[in-house]
Amino acid sequence: MTTAKFEKLLSILKEMQSVVLAFSGGVDSTFLLKAVRESGIRHLAVTAFSETMPGSELKCAEETARLMGVHHRIIRTGELDNPEFSRNPRNRCFYCKDELFSKLSDIAAAEGYKCVIDGSNNDDLADWRPGRQAAVKHGVRSPLMEAALSKDEIREISKAMGLPTWSKPASPCLSSRLPYGTEITRDALKRIELSEEFLKSLGFGNLRVRSHDDMARIEVTDKELSRFFDKGIRESVVTRLREFGFKYIVVDLEGFRSGRLNE
To answer: Rounded distance, CA 103 to CA 214, Å?
Structure first.
């Protein structure tokens, strides 16, 4: 089944002839970029960078694109300058994607690419994705969705292809760590980024630092929760996160769950 779907994906891409791809360096966009390369069509992978994206993710995207030998460009986006985005409504992602797809559409029009594409997959149809409205607005196509490829299938094929991202955890923008209605500021995003990078430096894997005003709520996987019983780790985390600007640091006993604030 997955082989047939991949062949369908290649057929869809070949029909497009040339594409500008929104490339984050995650599982889906890396897999799609690999398929674009195999299809042989003219392409440009574009990574958008702003304060909402961890610097480590930008470096990862740059390195992945370099190793794949693709045409890659980094652009700056300014969603934080849009008050409709920074006030953090439930459809926050629409304004972010509207900014991104507007810029990608301009590039495509100016440089003769026929389509703008993104890495949305079939599973995204069942989740809260206001960014899809922006994709529709700008005529952005989602080849993975058109080929009915699920996240699990994308990981499976990526592993078989030897793509290093096949097991990479999801990494949504830093704004997703702030509850809807809480203003998104550069300072808030920076302390979230610093806090998550510090926890990763201690060996924690899939995690989130949710920001509730001056309180940091840490989510880690169930198997890593017990590490906080280690006094040295606990004191180290409290000390550093306070240095980053949080007053209170708590660990969520329910553990990590992607999309928690959507609940």
So the answer is: 35
